[in-house]
Amino acid sequence: EAGVAQSPRYKIIEKRQSVAFWCNPISGHATLYWYQQILGQGPKLLIQFQNNGVVDDSQLPKDRFSAERLKGVDSTLKIQPAKLEDSAVYLCASSFRVAGPKETQYFGPGTRLLVL
Amino acid sequence: AQSVAQPEDQVNVAEGNPLTVKCTYSVSGNPYLFWYVQYPNRGLQFLLKYITGDNLVKGSYGFEAEFNKSQTSFHLKKPSALVSDSALYFCAVTRRGEAAGNKLTFGGGTRVLVKP
User: At the top level of CATH, which class does the domain A5-115 belong to?
Assistant: First the structure.
């Protein structure tokens, strides 16, 4: 079974530029998550989708971050404009069923973003 | 609010010796608890989870964890560590009965170094 795919793996941009990350979840997984992992910290949930609807985006900085999951499969996370403090690894995860606390989340390899 | 504490930034152990990685949590109500491992430049890999039932949970790669409700702990253990177990370990919690979503809260991580 193929895992969660993410691209690009690495991205370097200058502050105030925009950037987009792509995620393809495990086939058949209804729920998709985006996390931000700052160096030396644990991942922090940014947004959670169930199919193509948003379940939780309470920690997403909506003035600069946006995400979509058209057709309930792939997802894109965008930052516009980027700030220095956005330098982090952006992890995508998916889980099988409709969102529930017991469900195991499976993570992709992440996209490492450096903002200069 | 829910939180996870991993009191040790790093754990050093000799190969063949027992390995313990500590985790305590705070959550209103009953928890679901998870352990993930992260290798360099890789996403998080699921190790094990506690949902209900037996307090001793067995997971991948010979790891196990013991849920202790009175001490609000979920320590990860392995009887005999391998050099290949050297990685970053994350404990995470979510609340049972969460009405919507599966909001995992992660600890800050513990780096494990197993020396030959």
Answer: mainly beta
